[in-house]
Amino acid sequence: QAQLVESGGGLVQAGGSLRLSCASSGREFSDYAMVWFRQAPGKEREFVAGMSWRGTNVVYADSVKGRFTISRDNAKNMVFLQMDSLKPEDTAVYYCASRFGVATTTAANYKSWGHGTQVTVSS
Which of 22, 36, 45, 109 is the most exposed place for a label (fewest CB within 10 A)? Predict the structure, then answer.
């Protein structure tokens, strides 16, 4: 399985921006979809955004459409999440995950996970 390491989280005021990064190592990056999930205290882990290997399959949660942008650099085995117009309800631990094939929105479909990075948005 891949080793995934997230970075870029932090504390930001509402309306601000953050850019999360996820570095993958340990296996081939090609043909694997990369996704972002998040989990707030007391809540289930929820899908945020996902992108297939070639970028032809891109999916966003309705709650982040128009504010978040997922991208990937396959040459560097990295995936990014640009988060703009952040809201307090975006506060959560953000995780990246990967699976062979297309991105799906169900956490149970992913076996490779990072340890997460905390994003806190103050009002």
Answer: 109
How far is the C-alpha of 30 from the C-alpha of 101, rounded, in Å? 9
Residue 65, both tokens: 């459409």
69-85: pLDDT as tens digits: 999 999 999 999 999 99
The span from the CA of 62 to the CA of 34, in Å, is 18
Q: Is the dihedral of CA 113, 30, 28, 70 positive or negative?
A: negative
> How far is it, in rounded angstroms, from Cα 62 to Cα 31?
25
Q: Residue 90: phi, psi to the nearest 5?
A: -85, -5
| Distance from C-alpha of 8 to C-alpha of 61, rounded to nearest angstrom | 20
Three-state DSSP state, 45: coil
Q: Tokens 């479909």, residue?
A: 109
Q: Which amino acid is at 48?
A: V
User: In the Cβ-directed half-sphere of 99, how many Cα atoms lie within 13 Å?
Assistant: 14
Does residue 7 surpass a pLDDT of 90? Answer: yes
